[in-house]
Amino acid sequence: MSLTLDAITLTYPDGDRRLTALDAVDLHVPAGTVTAVVGPSGSGKSSLLAVAATLVRPDSGRVVIGGDRVDGRGRSALTALRRRSIGIVFQQPNLLPALTAAEQLRVMSHLDGRRGDAALLAEVGLEDLAHRRPHQLSGGQRQRVNIARALVNRPQVLLVDEPTSALDHARGAAIIDLITAKTREHGTATVLVTHDRTHLAGVDQVVELVDGRVRSR
Ligand SMILES: Nc1ncnc2c1ncn2[C@@H]1O[C@H](COP(=O)(O)OP(=O)(O)OP(=O)(O)O)[C@@H](O)[C@H]1O
Question: What is the CATH number of domain 3-91+157-215?
Fold first, then answer.
């Protein structure tokens, strides 16, 4: 399903004024495609991801997933929507230290009451490492578990924040390739926030944010 952000404006309190983090931002991400969001520090990339994740409510504008407007829904409806439809991959894989790779996935699917899917580990190339705990995995392998975990519930929207920042170039490129492949395979609408423009050759759209506005390219 597609993701659309329509005229999103977001401000934060800033002393006795408001700081405009996103200024009438439009973004359309068709199903099965990856949109990279680039821009300098403080340009609003994380804010955009937080709005798309329905974690932060914008001052104005609409968030539309698969044709349904989702901003403005109540808290429990948004929690259910996030569990069901939105996968989030954070910069640092926040895996639970005591659990094996397979267990990290099972915990997610139990939380949502769905069947565990350790086969996902095979999809991300970790079938032989299912029994390892996070400290027994490399940074790139941990990020793969993180991605597999975000995909457990087959989300319609995948939001990825700086997935390569802790990785060397080759491992970073492999992670972007993996995200792109899974996006195509599952028909996900994927937004990938990154500082690093060197990996962007394979993505479908690159959006540059400057001071909270989309700069046309
Ligand atoms: N909770 C907050 N309260 C007040 N201001 C905030 C808050 N979060 C972000 N900001 C401000 O909003 C603007 C956009 O921040 P945001 O984190 O979205 O940028 P970014 O592009 O993700 O930056 P970076 O690349 O450094 O992570 C910045 O000026 C930041 O200082």
Answer: 3.40.50.300
